[in-house]
Automatic annotation (TrEMBL):
This is Membrane protein. It comes from Corynebacterium resistens (strain DSM 45100 / JCM 12819 / GTC 2026 / SICGH 158). Keywords: Membrane, Transmembrane, Transmembrane helix. The chain crosses the membrane at residues 30-48, 77-96, 103-122, 134-158.
Amino acid sequence: MTDGDDKLAKYRGDLQAAEKSAARDVNYQPFLAPMAIGLFGVLIAIVLPHSGEVHGYDVLFNSPVAQEFNTKLPERAYSWLALTGGILLPIGTIVSRSWLVAWVNWFFAGIAWWYSAFAIWIRQSRPVTDPGEGPAYGLIIAAVCLTILFATLSVLLFRKTPLQKALAQARREEAHRDEASRLKQQRLRTGLEEREQINDFVDDRRAVAAERRRVRRAQKENRQGVNPDGE
């Protein structure tokens, strides 16, 4: 295979470093559509009704309307988590393509998704005397979009890209061809060093046994007060 036919030619110098670099580069393009749906869905939910007359922005800033209808603290926590994990961090993930930002986004999106379900449960299980109402369609839309966003990020982060798979396969093939790499792989798998010659294994059991007998004989003669040289 010539360099022109080898699509991994520019990575051949250090396949391991190239594989690590590919793992840190988030290729969001195949997932752009569901990420955009999740992002814009959460963004629109901020201006939609959260519960009755309370809108998403009322919950976000704890406005007098939100206080009047007894909006709970977990609902405000959901609102800020949705803003962070559903709007700000997805934009950061798309712009930066950083695996670190994507992981932080995944973490916050997961917590925001859980809190959205909790907020719906709070609205549905409110006391009869509570002045508020049940969950409105804005809250439900946000919960659905956070689910889409969290699932998309999970697939994006936990699935290897075609480039990562190709680099991993090339590294395995190179390891079989390269003797030094093969020995390194063996040490990683077994923790044992390979010995090139059988003579490297020295059978010194007889010498050790003879030395022990000599030491015991000398100790016995010393106890009997006999000079080993016969003087």
